[in-house]
Amino acid sequence: MVLTSVGKMMGLQQKAAGIRNICVLAHVDHGKTTLADCLISSNGIISSRLAGKLRYLDSREDEQVRGITMKSSAISLHFEKGGQEYLINLIDSPGHVDFSSEVSTAVRLCDGCIIVVDAVEGVCPQTQAVLRQAWLENIRPVLVINKIDRLIVELKLTPQEAYMHLKNILEQINAVTGSLFTSKVLEERAEKEAESESSSDTAAGDQIYDWSAGLEDTDDSHLYFSPDHGNVVFASAIDGWGFGIEHFAKLYSQKIGIKPAVLLKTLWGDYYLNTKAKKIMKGDQSKGKKPLFVQLVLDNIWSLYEAVMKRDKEKIEKIVTSLGLKIGPRESRHADPKVHLNAICSQWLPISDAVLSMVCSKLPSPLDITAERVEKLMCVGAKTFDSLPPETQELKSAFLRCSSEETAPVIVFVSKMFAVDAKALPHNKPRPLTQEEIAQRRELAKQRHAGKMAANQGKEVSEKPPSENSSEGTGSTGDKKGEEQQLTDQMDVVTSKAAKQEADNKESFIAFARVFSGVVRRGQKIFVLGPKYDPAESLHKLSPQCSATDDLPSVPHMSCCTLENLYLLMGRELEELEEVPAGNVLGIGGLQDFVLKSATLSTSPACPPFTPLNFEATPIVRVAVEPKHPSDMPQLVRGMKLLNQADPCVQVLIQETGEHVLVTAGEVHLQRCLDDLKERFAKIEISVSAPIIPFRETITRPPKVDMVNEEIGKQQKVAVIHQTKEDQNKIPEGIQVDSDGLVTISTPNKQATLSVRALPLPEEVTRLLEENSDLIRTMEQLSTSLNEDKNAHEINQKTMDKIKEFKQKLEQNLQGRKWRNAVDHIWSFGPRKCGPNILLHKFEGYKNSVWQCLENTEKELIATMKEACRYALQAKPQRLMAAMYTCEIMATAEVLGRVYAVLSKREGRVLQEEMKEGTDVFIIKAVLPVAESFGFADEIRKRTSGLASPQLVFSHWEIISSDPFWVPTTEEEYLHFGEKADSENQARKYMNAVRKRKGLYVEEKIVEHAEKQRTLSRNK
Ligand SMILES: Nc1nc2c(ncn2[C@@H]2O[C@H](COP(=O)(O)OP(=O)(O)OP(=O)(O)O)[C@@H](O)[C@H]2O)c(=O)[nH]1
Ligand SMILES: [Mg+2]
């Protein structure tokens, strides 16, 4: 296969209809990178022998060592089918849950995706997660069921069993898609109903409820994966083969004389071949017949595997000649039968053909971007499309046209920044010489040689006849010239070395981006729009026709930059480009001072920022880092800044204590960030603290029973111990606390007095607040703009309806005497005005509240009462909330016991256990406190000899039921737990650990009767 030249790729970039931007998505280890290898080898970039072993797109050293992908990377491939040429921009993504943010960055730039599923493991948690991601971004999926060879070699299934197994996998995956689809239809239906309700208010006509509108009506057949739709490929990436059923339909239509269209419909499903009648009949199972798929497809593959594995030379020969293949002696005599197998299979059913032709025929080109997706991309937060300024709404057509005309506005989205060694940039690399340059050099060398020869001759001549001075003169000048040349050459070497060293130390950032409209050119000036940029605001100040080259007034969240370099992304290599037309994925250099992680670039100030990426993983694992040598601090600070820019998900911050903190998605992610920091970005030795575990604090209702299940109030208190408990919650003077927890506190100048009471919110309210955080943020923005300038914003009717609905729901959930009128008295949400806490006021007649955007009243609301809130919280029973992971572990029956042992040792709780159909594998769903999770995956892997490996995903916060301040107060408790309550109190353990880290006072048990201990040890 010939390597496709950059020139050719540039040509293909111009034809948007032939472009496919796709990514490969799957659960960890299902074979994405191996599949990508096979596709890359079809373009001659790597040899087909190495495909699957090289894992070309895993270009980092740690990716190769650990065998998992950590960064998504892109490569452009060329494919030809049916006389049409295609450019495929392929992005390989990581499957490990810690790196799921890399998946989000990849999915945003694509129009379609290949979902890979391991034929043995089937649908796994990350498979579901990536399907959801694809769904959220409105991109179309196709399916590759990979590792079919494992069904033959490892599970030793018969073709019939394998068929049932594959059918099962398809059902599972379609069930996931189905549930995504149903939830969306229901949502839309609810929305429509709400709309029709509001319209029926005005038009008081008869409302006929249309029952059929909804699920039954909506055609969803194109969403499902089915081999007869042509969106499923069965494959074994490691053995280099793959096929869609149309391949076999074509093959057998000639052999058995049945139309390909008929075969295409019947090859998958419960049909069988009636050989006598030469007809395809339905109902294989009831008649005990082999389904067509088994008879015509799987049987053949199975017998090939059998023949090669058993080294049945005759049979292999027969198969090879009947298929018309040519196998070299090197492969057929290889000691490893797998090599032989690979050679046969990859010629017979080349996986790249099957997958790429499915991609080209089933996945959309950039021209097919849907209006729905465009609107979604353009509307940030709870804003709706029709609330955008008209100039902005007009841009929708630019997206839909995806045009590369001069007049089309340029719209580019940068989904992440990635660091490359400055050495690896094309302009710093020795580049192969062109023909002319080679000719030129040859000419120069010839001249030099001729010069030397002449000089030598001259010398000889001058030595002989001393009278001929002239020739001596030329000779010496020639020598001088030579010396000069040498000197400048040396200088060049020195300076280039210095430059190289400098380049060595420098990291260059490349933006991973896609052009949605227009043509980007090198050296072009363009607006960089931050996520908070608001076109409505800037269009007041700027004219919609202004360009980034004009001298413009400053606008918040907008800057101008020059596109310094454009690159074609070719896996480990970058190729320089002069311009990139709409519809392509590209790399952009020179943005590192303008873009932190992601951004929207446009030539039009009316362009809105794209919606933020949907990140599934929440950064939760924090560590503090410091340099080993304090003098290295500046490098660390710089390194952390670079790391932050290079990773979509990591957070770096400086805590109040001055500690530098890294927040990462999980242990593997943490390790990668630390390695990057040490070896690339800071290049210093660093020491890392133990993970800092996050906790939240909350209050609960007072318990009705005590720790020994006695009703509270009836027991006799133990006076002495009771005293200590009172001490712990000691409240300073000047603050009154009543029996119901109402705290009253005066300001130091005694001008004002505040009374605050803390109450636990009903759980549904907390959930409601968390779900609506976007809406609350929008309300906050509206309120501020109302306070500043009454008419700055026209509030969109839909948003208003949403706010009203939210208010109603809150009212429904805040019922009872305690919460009377509470919703109207909401002063603020918190923390930072949008969290799951509510601040209520109790002033009768006081109007100011969060609902002012509905009422249009204005007044200031400012009050700081940190102290009062703290004491109010302390006056109630306090509890810690722990961050919880969910994990799904697959384990065989024999290691199940050990998995449970590890789980229970680490305070894990099993939620569900079920057996995977058709296998002896159990799936265990459990929750585990983040605090107990460090080393969990490793421990499980070790205890089960690598048979089970869990992935942990942050799921929720959970109240730890024990009271961190608890001490025995009644006689029974005292008897049961002892004076010091020595038995484990999980909450206290966590609390003390935090206090210790913060250098706060920790009350710990001290050995009180040391003498007794001495008598125990006799050897003293
Ligand atoms: N038996 C078999 N093994 C395969 C096949 N494809 C891939 N593998 C193996 O599965 C392992 C994982 O393959 P990768 O391609 O790295 O998987 P991945 O999906 O890229 O993994 P992550 O990027 O870490 O999510 C490797 O050891 C491959 O050799 C296959 O078709 N059959
Ligand atoms: Mg991979």
TrEMBL record:
Chain coiled-coil ranges: none
Record-linked SUPFAM superfamilies: EF-G C-terminal domain-like, P-loop containing nucleoside triphosphate hydrolases, Ribosomal protein S5 domain 2-like, Translation proteins
Alphabetical list of Gene3D superfamilies matching this protein: 3.30.230.10, 3.30.70.240, Elongation Factor G (Translational Gtpase), domain 3 (3.30.70.870), P-loop containing nucleotide triphosphate hydrolases (3.40.50.300), Translation factors (2.40.30.10), Yeast translation eEF2 (G' domain) (3.90.1430.10)
InterPro entries documented for this protein: EFG_II, EFG_III/V, EFG_V-like, EFL1, P-loop_NTPase, Ribosomal_Su5_D2-typ_SF, Ribsml_uS5_D2-typ_fold_subgr, Small_GTP-bd
Keyword Nucleotide-binding: yes
Domain Tr-type G intervals: 17-261
Keyword Thylakoid (UniProt): no
An MF annotation (GO) of this entry: GTPase activity
Domain of life: Eukaryota
Record-linked CDD domains: aeEF2_snRNP_like_IV, eEF2_snRNP_like_C, EF2, EF2_II, EF2_snRNP_III
Keywords for this protein: GTP-binding, Hydrolase, Nucleotide-binding, Ribosome biogenesis
Segments for region (Disordered): 443-489
The protein's name: Elongation factor-like 1
